[in-house]
Every structure is written in C-alpha cells, then in structure tokens.
Amino acid sequence: MMSAPFKLVRIPSLRNVEEFRRHVAGLGLELPCDEAIVVGTGSPLVQSLPSVSINGKLLGNRWAIHPMEGWDGTRSGGITDDVRRRWQRFGESGAKLICGGEAMAVRADGRANPNQLMATPENQNGLAELVALLRKAHQERYRSTEDLVIGFQLTHSGRFCKPTDPKRMEPRVAFRHPILDGRFHVTSQDQVFADEEIRQLIVCYVGAAAVARAAGADFVDLKHCHGYLLHEFLGAHTRPGPYGGSFDNRTRILREIIAGIRASGNPIDIGVRLSAFDFVPYRPDPALSQPGRPGPGIPEDYSHCLPYRYGFGVRAEQPTDYDLTEPRRFVDLCAELGVKILNLSAGSPYYNPHIQRPAAYPPSDGYQPAHDPLIDVARQIQVVRKLRAQAPRSLAIVGTAYSYLQEYLPHVAQFTVRAGWTDIVGLGRMTLSYPELLADAVAKGALNAKVICRTFSDCTTAPRNGLISGCYPLDRHYTAKPEFEQLKALKKPKA
Ligand SMILES: Cc1cc2nc3c(=O)[nH]c(=O)nc-3n(C[C@H](O)[C@H](O)[C@H](O)COP(=O)(O)O)c2cc1C
Ligand code: SF4
C-alpha cells in the first residue's frame, strides 16, 4: 500500500512560540526554545566566549557565519564585486566569528566550480581586500573589531570537482564508492588519489595556510565535511595503505597538514568543519515523482553494500542512522592537535541534502521532504549537544542547521547557547537573505519577516545549473540580475 503523502506544516503558519512548541511536541522532538527574544546585554547570544583565544582574540558574541561559496569568483580564483558584497554583508551581520567565509580551493584542480576562490599567492591581495572590507563594515556598525575573528575555509572538492566547465565533472576520490561512483562519473582507479599525490596535496594546504596568514585571516578551517575530499578520507575504511583503514590512517591527512603548517613556521590558528554524521545517499522516490516535481527522498538501495563501510559517523549495519563512536574520537583528536574551532555539520548537500540543510523546498537536484524538516534540525542540534558535552573547553563548538527555524531561530539559539548545548550558533542560508537577523533580535527583539529565509533553495539550485549563488527570491541584488530570469526558466517544469 502506498503511504499517504506527508503534508508539511510551514513555519510561518505557526503564529507564536506556543504554536511552535505544540508542533514540535507533536513531532515528538526535543527542540526547546525560549519564550521570548531577550534584548540587550542579558541575551546569551551577546556573551563573549572566554575559554578560547584565536589569534590572541576572544570572540565577542555567540553567533557565526558559516562558510558559503558563491560560484562567482574569476576563472583564476580571484575576487569580484559579488564576492566583495557578500563579505561586506558578513561584516554587517554582527557575527563575531566568520567561520571560513567560503570554501577556497587549495589548488586549481580541486575547485567545485570554475569560479571558486583559490587561496593561492596570485590571489592573496584580493583575499586581503575581503578581510579589510569585512572588518571595515563591521567596525562602522559595531564599533569594534578586536573581538571579531575571521577564518578562511580551505578545501579540495574531491568527488565533486568541476574545475574547468560547470557542466563537466572531473572527480578525484579517496576510494571507490558502490553508490556514488555511478552518480559522479567515477569509472577508473586512476581517479583515486595515490599516496604520493596526497603528499603533494598536503604541500598545497600548507601553502594556502601561508596565503591565509599573509592575507590577514585569524585561522584556517580545514574542510572535513559534505563529502568533499578530506571528509571522504575520514570514511576511507576500504582504502589500503597509510591513508585508509584504521582511524589513525583515515585522520593522517589532518595530522600531516597541521604538522606541515607548524613546520613551515606559520602560527595561524586552526579550525575544522566536520560532517559529524552521515547517512547513505538518498534520491527522489521514483514512484511519487512527476516532471519538474521530484518525489520525497528515500534511501538508495544499500542492501548490496552491508556492512556499510563507505562513510564517517554512519551506522555500518543500518546506514540510515548515525554512529558517534568515531566522531567522538575525532573531537578528542582535534583537541589534542590544538584545533581551536570545531564547526559541526552533517551529511552532504549532494547526496543527502535533507540531513545537511533542512528545507521546505528542494533544490533542483534534490527531493521533496519526506518528513518535517524540524526532525533534521533537531537531529543536528542533539548531535552537537552530545559532542559539546564531551569536548574540552579549549575547543569552541559551532552548531549548524538553524536557518529552517525561521521566526523561531533566535528563541532556539538563545536556549541552546544558554543551556551549553553549543558554544556558538552558526548561520548559513539565513545570512544570504537576512545577514542581520540575530543583530536585530538582540538589538530590537523583533525581526524583519520580509527577508527571513524560507528555504526556497534557489541559492543551491542556481549553482547546480551553472549560475552564481545568492538569495534570488529575497535579496534585490539578485532579483535584479539577468540570472534571475534564467533561474526562473530552468525551474519551469519541462513538458
Ligand atoms: C549557497 C550555499 C553555499 C555553501 N557553501 C559552503 C561552503 O563553501 N562550505 C561549507 O562548509 N558549507 C557550505 N554550505 C553549507 C552551509 O555552510 C550550512 O552548513 C548549511 O547551509 C546549513 O546551515 P543553514 O541551515 O543555516 O543554512 C553552503 C550552503 C549554501 C546554501
Ligand atoms: S534562496 Fe534565499 S530564501 Fe531560498 S534558501 Fe537560499 S537564502 Fe533561503
């Protein structure tokens, strides 16, 4: 028997905190929120974080901007006016932690799109300009930048590389994957990174960290999330040799990058963004899909790959569930290595977007929600809570997946920070539509509902189709661009 389609209760239809709480309780979730937004110095969100000093600074408040690519750099990985504008808005957001800015490739073949920024010496001046713009915008609005910390996220895109043509995949992988190889055009063993190539890659990370330092970044974020290369290595159980198999081998690259940065004499602080758990890849249910309207997400058939040894933080016997045994070890390892910031995320926007960025509306390569996205929000918040409880205070923990909370984001953020479930609340998509959401909350106790991100996913759909990213529906800068019409045309269901 076919199950009845699930009917989504949209967040703006919940008229007050009481209704939000009732809805959350009806879903059986532990997702508490404050009764009201706290204004001024009493807000948990405006407290500094005394336990961690980054480049000699203490963070002035408890919200961060997550890294977000724009697909809008030059073909040589340099900055453009759209990139400048985004970084300026990061500064205007009031967040005291810019947790990576956007993923920057450490070398040309590791780009996820031909217009991704690159942290290479030729681009150093442009990156320094971004830091300066961000600081100036922040200084003008908030009067102080002594407590503002800026990082650059460093990456190689691995399985998702498209360095030369937005339509052509040129994947490089850590290991052969029984489900993802088919989706991402991995057809030959030559696409698997050889051990010697990894050593060359580590040299590129060390070089990119030198560029970051020279450009004025306070730290580098070593991207270990979302299925990109270093995240894939964490799940390289089936890979032979020094970079696969045991936990020690699968985390060797992280240790060698940090050792390389230190050996080069670069004192820059280190952060890590981690997908703290993962599931198997999902796809739209073909039985419930129509042209232009993908069905709800269901797991790919994984019966032929059990026990599932192709991910990190995923339960081998039941890979639609998580297992935090190794992520817990990873937290301890980060602390041992002197990592200062651990930004926790989940899954991948390419193969299980519902666990990574909960949304009411799917991106063009996604699927309809099969259940209330609050379930996915609560899962991330609870995992962060568990890992925060174990992590030493020397590690600042950043939580993810708050944007879907919309009107109730400040209420939940206040609760999670006050309760110590996370040190810092990170904002992704909400920053694109409404960078000052939490600044408005703590200053006025009220939000501008017109620009609250409604998780329309256009900022993901556009780049999936070779266009620049941005909040097309709510940010006039993008609504006015020719790409807006292009996006509209490609979203029209094909007959
Ligand atoms: C357009 C776009 C670009 C993104 N780029 C990056 C990135 O470069 N690095 C990264 O770690 N995460 C990236 N993410 C994921 C976000 O940082 C964040 O984890 C995700 O959007 C969930 O948080 P939210 O619910 O606040 O949006 C991106 C997300 C979006 C929507
Ligand atoms: S396009 Fe705008 S409203 Fe839609 S998810 Fe992105 S930021 Fe949110």
Short description:
This protein is an alpha/beta fold and 495 residues long. The protein is built from 17 helices and twelve strands.
Structure description:
This protein has 495 residues and is an alpha/beta fold. The chain has 17 helices and 12 strands. The strands form 3 sheets. An 8-stranded parallel β-barrel has the order 3-4-5-6-7-10-11-12, surrounded by 4 helices. A two-stranded antiparallel sheet has the order 1-2. The protein has a two-stranded antiparallel sheet with strand order 8-9. Helix 2 runs parallel beside helix 3 and helix 5 packs across helix 8. The longest helix is centred in the middle third of the chain and has 20 residues.
Strand order, biggest sheet?
Answer: 3-4-5-6-7-10-11-12
List the secondary-structure elements in sequence, H or E. HEEEHEHEHHEHHHEEEHEHHEHEHHHHH
> What is the total tally of β strands?
12
- Termini separation comes to 29 Å
Mean pLDDT: 97
Radius of gyration (Å): 21 Å
Which percent range fits the helix content? Answer: 25-40%
Please mark out the parts with pLDDT under 50 across 5 or more consecutive residues, or reply none.
Answer: none
What summary fits the major beta sheet? Answer: 8 strands, parallel, barrel
Number of helices: 17
Question: What small-molecule ligands were found?
Answer: flavin mononucleotide, iron/sulfur cluster
Structural class of the helices, strands and pairings? alpha/beta
Form type: globular
Oligomer: single chain
Provide the β-strand percentage band. 5-15%
